[in-house]
């Protein structure tokens, strides 16, 4: 499995944070704030994979980009970046040694905390 940083999502997240589209919640909130499968499917149906991909900091080349399995490390609810999502994704990226993704998430977390 080749999982790498989704640079478009990283840039999108930085722009959302600059625009104040961020929820400063706590780490444990992600289980409640993460989009459900129903939310994901509805967003995909309405906006397509190009927009869907902007909410995931990792991409997995072992899956085609028109499959949900291609996208890893969600960080928001399709409206705003959630601090809890960034923290959760950073932790998981570190566990799996995806250093570029972990480092990008660390930078996002700094920006969220500064905003």
Topology (elements, then pairings):
Elements: E1 3-5, H1 7-18, E2 22-23, H2 30-33, H3 37-52, E3 56-60, E4 71-74, E5 81-82, H4 83-95, H5 99-114
Parallel strand pairs: 2-5
Antiparallel strand pairs: 1-3, 3-4
Helix pairs in contact: 1-5, 4-5
User: Largest sheet, if any?
Assistant: 3 strands, antiparallel
Give the number of helices.
5
| Counted beta strands | 5
The 3D shape can be described as: globular
Q: Provide the β-strand percentage band.
A: 5-15%
Helices and strands: which structural class? alpha+beta
- The Rg value, from CA coordinates, equals 13 Å
Number of domains: 1
Give the overall average pLDDT: 94
Percent helix range: 40-55%
Unreliable stretches (pLDDT < 50, length at least 5) are none
What is the quaternary state of this protein?
single chain
Q: Please report the distance between the alpha carbons of the first and last residues.
A: 35 Å
* SSE pattern: EHEHHEEEHH
Strand order of the largest sheet: 1-3-4
What does this structure look like?
The structure is a single chain. This protein has one domain (3-114). The protein is built from 5 helices and 5 strands. The relative contact order is 0.24. The protein has helices at 7-18, 30-33, 37-52, 83-95, 99-114; strands at residues 3-5, 22-23, 56-60, 71-74, 81-82. The protein starts with a strand and ends with a helix. By secondary structure, the protein is α+β, with helices and mostly antiparallel strands. It has a 3-stranded antiparallel beta sheet with strand order 1-3-4.
